[in-house]
Structures are given as C-alpha cells and as structure tokens.
Write a structure and sequence with these properties.
single chain, mainly beta, Immunoglobulin-like, 5 domains, five-stranded mixed sheet, 2 helices, signal
C-alpha cells in the first residue's frame, strides 16, 4: 500500500520549489558590476638603488609598483637632466620598471629622471604625476628649488597641469625648438615646484598646451605661454615666482585653416585679428559676384557663402584696411555634394523671451526669401495674424517677428515647410517654436561711477558674468558713470584692462620682444542686479601692480 504521508510531503516540496523558481525567474536580472571606478594611480613600493643615492654607480634602476602599469607617450613625457647622448632604456617587467643607463654619466653630477605623465595603470590610465628619481655620481646632490604659481593672464584663474620648465640662460635659444629636460606640472591650485636644481642662471617658462599637444615644445599658433623676462639666478631656494600664461598674437598674418563645409560654405581662420577685413574671389572673378561674407567679432575668422560652386579651385585675396595680406587657393572635389539644413535657432533662454529684445530667428544659411503665410502664431491657443516678419538689415542669417507679446501668455509658432528659402533654393522643413515673455520685473539696472587713478591713461571697464564672459564694456580715461541697463537679475562683476597703448582692446604679450600682457584687475565686489531695482554705487580703479 502506497505511503500517502510521504507522497503528500513530496507534492508539497515540489509546489514550494516551483514557486521559488517562478519568483527568481520573474526577478529583473541585474548586471554584474565591478564596484566603484578605480581612480587611484599606481603607488611606488620600492626604488633600487634608493632615491637620492649619492656616489651612484649602478647600471640599472628598478622601480616597483603596487599594480600592473603601462608607459605612455614616453618620448614626450620621460626625460633625464642633464641630457645624455644615449637616452636611458625603459622596460616593464611585471609590476616593476627597469631603467638601463648608458655608460656616459659624468662624475660629480646630479641627475634627475622625470617621468611626467608617462606612468599609468593598465585599466583606467590613472597617471602618476611628477614622478621623479634623483641620484648623484658624486658626494653631493643638488638641492636648490624654484617654486611659484601659474595663472591665466586673462581670467586670473589658476592653471592646472601647465608645464613649468627652465632652460640654462646660455641655451635659451632652444626655446620652442626642443623639449625641455627640467620641468614639472602645476597642481589644481596652479602651484609648482622644481627640485634638485643646480646653481646657475636660467630662463623660466610656463606652457599651457592645446588639446592634442603634449610634446612640451611651444607652438605659437595653438599654445599659451608665460615667462619671466629677466633670467633668474638660482643660488638659493626661490619662491613666489608668478607666471601668467597668454595666447600670443602671431607676428605675421597667415591663414591657419581653409575648408569647404558640408553645406558648401567656406570657413577661414586667421593668425591675427583684423581691423577692416575684406575678401575677394580673384579667380575666377565671376564667382565673386553676389558672395556673402561674415566675420566674427574679433575679425579672426570668416565664413563665406558663394552663389556659384561649379569651380574646381578658386583664389581668395584677404585684405585689411585695403592692404593685401595673403592670397590663397581653395580646391573643390568634382564629386563633392552638400547637405543644407535650414533649421534656425532663436534668442529665447529656456523658453523665455527677454522683454527688451525682439523675437529673432538665426539660420545656418543666408535667407533669400520668406513667406509669412506659412507661419502660424498661436497666442494661448488663439490664432493671431497681426505679426510682422522682418528681415534683419545687417545680418543675412536673421529674421525678426514683431508682435505685441504679453506676459503670462504661451506662444506657439509653427513654420510649415518652405516658409524660408535660402541660397541654392534650400528650403526649411517644418519646425515649431514655443516660448513665453519674461516680465520686466525680472530685470534691473546697475549703475557705476568709476574713478580712474590717472587721467592720462585709458581703461577698459567691462561688466562680466559669473563665467567671466564680457557683457558690456566702456573705454574711459576720467571719472565716468557707466550703466548695465535692463539686464536679467543675477550676479555680475567688473574687470578693468589697463589699456597701455590706448587701442581699446586687451593686448597680449610677446616672448621674442619680452613684453607681458596688459594688466587686468578683477574687482572682488559683486555687482548684482536685483529684479525691478536700479542700484548705483562707486568703483575706484587701483594703480596697476
């Protein structure tokens, strides 16, 4: 006779197991994670011979790390000072770095191996910054140091990972030609320190390389540079060396970049800011007819739209104040095709229109025609037809829509396909815009009475926002009342450029001539604008330091 009790418990067990499997099957699968991201660079566990060894005679140096690592950009990052005819050989052996030295070490000499950012971990490329190894083949190790800070000449902010290096005064001619062997990187506060220096006379530089650089060789067209004009005599520890980096103005004009964009427009970039630039298509001369040219505010870039793109190549003459600067060639591929998108941007900010501005559309291409009948305006869902479409008289990319906008209303603009026609008969696809009008109560005015220290000199006084972007500027040379009227509430500040040559712009320095950038002073006093308020106070410009 079957054991009913045993069968009952087997059935219960089976049902329980099925329920458990069902629960696990319904649960959302979760990816297996590797824990928090590793942000720690390799750590040095041991150096053989020890760092700062005197009477050094070893042929090989071994540096042991706590994890596997890699050597990156060795030719750019690793150096030995003084330089050797034959460079040391770096080799990875598991978690150790072996450096084999040549047989040409000088007697009674301190050597510094500088790894820069060459050593990084395998997985996340976390870099050991400013790793160095120092030894002496004599009884003494050079122990002098040089310390200071690197800031931006324009913003005054600390420069992170700027390269600071020195060159013996007698070898200063190598600047910009060869990678320095004595260098260090600034920390997050812009501070730097060069250690184990030999007594002597040096020139000191700071270099902020453009993205994609890293060779520590100054490239005038892309990098920022700072320097101390007079050589520094190192006979004791030197501190408080302040370097200000700046983008140097090119001594000669030339076209840095020339290209035909995907929409058929031409883009040109120059090495200098021009005063009254003009562009002319000299060959074929027929292509010049009807062209449209737009320069940026600093006149160092230009965009050109041509009506005729049937050429294989053209010659473009660039002039400034009527003087020919350069003639360049631009070639076009015979099979090149272009894509033209006529979708504009507007001048609203987070869907809100400044009550002191007209509603404006800016297109990527010059507009040749507009059809207001293909525009629908809804005012709180009510259709309005009494708007006016106006072509901007000074900018071929802009159109304005005038309407008695009201606060507390929502405006919907629908532009059907073909509402706007651009060059080459390009037409817009359907697009919509939605916004509200900000109340004037959200805007205010700030007035400043500015007192200058010397009425024989010029000062450029600029209102700037929190990102240090200029909002409005005045050139003054006497006590003057300036105004930031009808601006959105927020935090504003003032900076002053000591305009030494009275040309109305900030002039940078010149390494070859040994000139520093014009001094900029940032007022620490916040010039806030409060909603629906007009605030007035005074500002006294100090003497330049």
């Amino acid at each position: 006779m079957p054991n009913l009790k045993s069968q009952y418990f087997n059935l219960i067990s089976f049902i329980a197991l099925a329920i458990i499997l069902q629960l696990f099957g319904c649960a959302s699968p979760q990816p297996v994670t590797g824990g928090p991201q590793d942000r720690t660079p390799p750590k040095v566990l041991n150096m053989t011979p020890k760092n700062l060894t005197k009477n050094f005679s070893a042929k090989k140096i071994v540096i042991e790390f706590d994890e596997y690592f890699k050597i990156q950009n060795e030719t750019k990052e690793f150096s030995i000072s003084p330089e050797l005819e034959k460079a040391p050989i770096l080799k990875i052996k598991k978690k150790a770095l072996e450096i084999t030295l040549p047989d040409t070490l000088e007697k009674n000499t301190t050597y510094t191996l500088n790894f820069g950012k060459a050593i990084a971990d395998i997985n996340e490329s976390n870099v050991i910054k400013n790793l160095s190894y120092v030894f002496s083949t004599g009884n003494e190790i050079d122990s002098l140091s040089l310390a200071g800070k690197v800031t931006s000449a324009l913003t005054g902010e600390a420069e992170l990972e700027a390269t600071v290096f020195i060159l013996p005064a007698e070898r200063d001619s190598l600047f910009g030609k060869k990678r320095p062997s004595i260098y260090t990187l600034t920390d997050s506060s812009g501070n730097f320190k060069l250690n184990n220096l030999r007594a002597g006379t040096y020139k000191i530089y700071a270099l902020k390389e453009a993205t994609g650089g890293g060779d520590k060789i100054y490239q005038q067209t892309s990098d920022e540079v700072g320097f101390v004009k007079d050589p520094i005599v190192i006979g004791k520890n030197n501190e408080n060396i302040n370097l200000k980096v700046f983008k140097e103005t090119a001594p000669e004009f030339r076209v840095l970049e020339r290209k035909i964009n995907t929409d058929g427009s031409l883009s040109l970039t120059f090495t200098q800011q021009l005063k009254k630039p003009t562009l002319t298509i000299t060959e074929p001369a027929s292509v010049d007819e009807g062209k449209r040219v737009m320069f940026n505010l600093s006149n160092d870039t230009a965009k050109v739209w041509l009506n005729n793109l049937s050429f294989d190549s053209i010659k473009v003459a660039i002039k400034d104040e009527g003087k020919l600067l350069q003639t360049i060639n631009i070639n076009r591929g015979k099979k090149d095709t272009y894509v033209r998108d006529l979708t504009p941007i507007d001048n609203t900010n987070n869907g809100k229109l400044n009550p002191y501005q007209s509603y404006t559309l800016t297109f990527p291409l010059p507009i040749t025609a507009a059809d207001a009948s293909k525009i629908t305006l809804l005012d709180d869902s009510i259709k309005r037809t009494n708007f006016v479409l106006i072509k901007d008289s000074t900018n071929v990319l802009k159109y304005k829509i005038n309407f008695p906008w009201k606060v507390k209303r929502t405006y919907d603009l629908k532009f059907t396909a073909g509402a706007f026609t651009g060059i080459f008969n390009a037409k817009n696809k359907e697009f919509t815009k939605k916004f509200t009008l900000e109340p004037t109560e959200n805007y205010g005015t700030r007035a400043l009475t500015v007192q200058v220290p010397d009425t024989t000199k010029n000062y450029i006084v600029e209102f700037i926002n929190e990102k240090k972007v200029p909002i409005k500027s005045y050139v003054i040379n006497k006590k003057t009342r300036i105004l930031l009227a009808n601006f959105a509430s927020g935090k504003y500040f003032v900076r002053v450029i000591y305009d030494e040559n009275k040309n109305g712009v900030w002039d940078t320095g010149n390494v070859k001539l040994g000139t520093q950038p014009e001094t900029i002073w940032y007022s620490l006093e916040e010039q806030s604008i409060r909603p629906n308020w007009e605030v007035e106070n005074t500002l006294t410009i100090p003497e330049p330091k």
